[in-house]
């Protein structure tokens, strides 16, 4: 399966298993979503369980909160992560805080799915990576898969979770892995081992990182599209790098990261989002706190520049394998 | 500077003598009570005029008279009076430094009390602040409300919330937010789920006329209209949003109730200080929702006699005696006079009730205070700070809790 099919399969499995699961958002019903993630679900489960909404992200999340408080388990789609901001108050002040402020009386087990990231010529309003904004909000869990296999397992875990989940889908990975060079011909998930996705129910635990490549020279921390870019960069440099796919942005699997960096003594952090105040800063601080006496070199970050996501200059903005390779060499002192 | 922009002004500011003779009030009993399965467009008169039942002679007149029995009226009066006595006590306690903050509902008690009495216990309440009357009607003990305000060892919210931001799930009262308006579309979602589950429960929400400018108001009405959700949406128009008059939210153009029509939702504008009118309009809307006929928007026209909160000083922006000139009077006084006119009540009984409720509030306060105060404790345990952020406490919070407690 590609990632779109894997996500579709996760929702299919959960709609089948739990009558309280409902799926809604802009264009997700009849049409099946602009990226086709909900294709066929309305036909299969009926328009009372899978339906179209008005173009009102704040309204989508707000109504989902009310439904969740009344026993449903809504899975909502925000068509692009760039459009999530109108819902910000409902997510931050309401969804993330219900359980706490009500002394445990109310909660809303919502999964908010949203395609994020660049590499699709989407310009600034279809390419952003807002994960750090949500990682900063206590009460939310934020997830970003990098393969179809993980996407399905994590989405099922998210739907089953009683905490609100921001589920960010790197849209450049929907149809195939992407190593960061747009000049290379696109490849599908059919030749990638993580494109092997079981039909039925399985979960991948939220809160656990995944070591996708073991190595002894340095640790690369990445997630989403950058996991594949980091792999290509490591290949290019010939450095024996360990690559950790963070997978759950928050709460973070500190143990896996700390164990790796303490062993390798070197760390490069890669993300698409802007650098200043970004998630890489938090990762860097944690690595420094946990691994300072084992570090052999400064921790480096490779990120999007601190500008809005550009259109024509996309590939100069995107932290591609050349920039990651440069950071690897710098940290290795070669 | 010449400009075509209109900057709205409050009609009266400190030093002015209030005169509300420009407010056009229809006679009580004048408006028809249509069947509940009505199209929005047929509610023009009901949303632009005002539903009133109590007339100048304190009689209940017209089609909207809910014909409540004497016992129900006594209950309503008791609840409203308790709301006011409770509020006054809490206000004083804030002034004495016993609680950090409070918000009184003075002058608008009929909104929460009459509306809640017109609903069923299974109906879900998504309140704004100033609707403590809902909790009184649903039988929450004053001691429990006071303990929340005191953030003491018996606070059901573990000391996490500002006073009055209550949550009482046992009586279907949703957790109150300090962010205004957010509850409005949430109520619509709750109602959609109720319909999905096949129950006959209705969701009810309240928003201030000031907060009706928030996008959440539009979300709520749009989703309620699109899916015809069983929900009653209320705008409490108490004229003042802290220091800004209702015209800063656009209330001088068309009534807030009339906005419903554009959404294809019936709008009812109600004399919010007329207990019977509020009860009747709410019953109509709840019945409509229960029949599957869809949502209703009700504007409750009232006046915020109290300061916005204990942190507010209304003397800086409005005449302090403005309420005395308010043409719709005091909801408690009006119901009392109606009951006296019906021969169901007397000044003596009223004085006796007031004394009984004052004693009850005082005794409740003493009990609540014995469980602790914000300044002196005992408080909920410090460790409670780390709980309920998530369903299970994640590793980083376990670590932070340890760091604090060590």
Low-confidence stretches of chain B: none
Counted by DSSP, the helix tally of chain B is 12
CATH class of chain B, please?
Alpha Beta
Q: How is the main sheet of chain A built? A: 7 strands, mixed
Query: Could you say what the CATH topology of chain B is called?
Result: Rossmann fold
**In total, how many domains does the architecture of chain A comprise?**
2
Biggest beta sheet summary of chain B: 5 strands, parallel
Number of domains of chain B: 1
Biggest interface: A-B, 44 and 47 residues
Based on CA atoms alone, the radius of gyration of chain B comes out at 22 Å
CATH class of the largest domain in chain A: Alpha Beta
Give the name of the CATH architecture of chain B: 3-Layer(aba) Sandwich
Which percent bin holds the helix content of chain A?
Answer: 25-40%
List the helices and strands and how they pair.
The complex is a heterodimer of chains A (334) and B (406).
Chain A: H1 3-17, E1 21-25, H2 41-45, E2 50-52, H3 57-69, E3 73-77, H4 88-95, H5 98-101, E4 111-116, H6 131-135, E5 141-143, H7 148-160, E6 165-170, E7 210-213, E8 218-222, H8 225-237, E9 241-245, E10 248-250, H9 254-264, E11 267-274, H10 279-291, E12 300-304, H11 314-317, H12 321-332
Parallel strand pairs in A: 1-2, 1-3, 3-4, 4-6, 5-6, 8-9, 8-11, 11-12
Antiparallel strand pairs in A: 5-10, 7-9
Helix pairs in contact in A: 1-7, 3-4, 8-12, 9-10
Chain B: H1 44-48, H2 70-95, H3 109-117, E1 124-126, H4 132-137, H5 142-150, H6 183-197, E2 203-208, H7 215-227, E3 231-237, E4 240-241, E5 244-245, H8 259-262, E6 267-271, H9 275-290, E7 296-301, H10 331-341, H11 347-370, H12 395-405
Parallel strand pairs in B: 1-2, 2-3, 3-7, 6-7
Antiparallel strand pairs in B: 4-5
Helix pairs in contact in B: 2-3, 2-10, 2-11, 3-9, 5-11, 6-7
Describe the structure.
The complex is a heterodimer of chains A (334) and B (406). Chain A is α/β, with parallel strands linked by helices and 334 residues long. Chain A folds into two domains: 3-173, Rossmann fold (3-Layer(aba) Sandwich), CATH 3.40.50.970; 207-332, 3-Layer(aba) Sandwich (Rossmann fold). Chain A is built from twelve helices and twelve strands. Chain A has helices at residues 3-17, 41-45, 57-69, 88-95, 98-101, 131-135, 148-160, 225-237, 254-264, 279-291, 314-317, 321-332, and strands at residues 21-25, 50-52, 73-77, 111-116, 141-143, 165-170, 210-213, 218-222, 241-245, 248-250, 267-274, 300-304. Chain B has one domain: Thiamin diphosphate (ThDP)-binding fold, Pyr/PP domains (Rossmann fold, 3-Layer(aba) Sandwich). Chain B has 406 residues and is an alpha/beta fold. Chain B has twelve helices and seven strands. Chain B is globular and about 70 Å long. In chain B, the strands form two sheets. In chain B, strands 1-2-3-7-6 form a five-stranded parallel beta sheet, with helices on both faces. A two-stranded antiparallel ribbon of chain B has the order 4-5. In chain B, 52% of the residues are buried. The chains are: A alpha/beta (334), B alpha/beta (406). Chains A and B meet through helix 3, helix 4 and helix 5 of A and helix 6 and helix 7 of B.
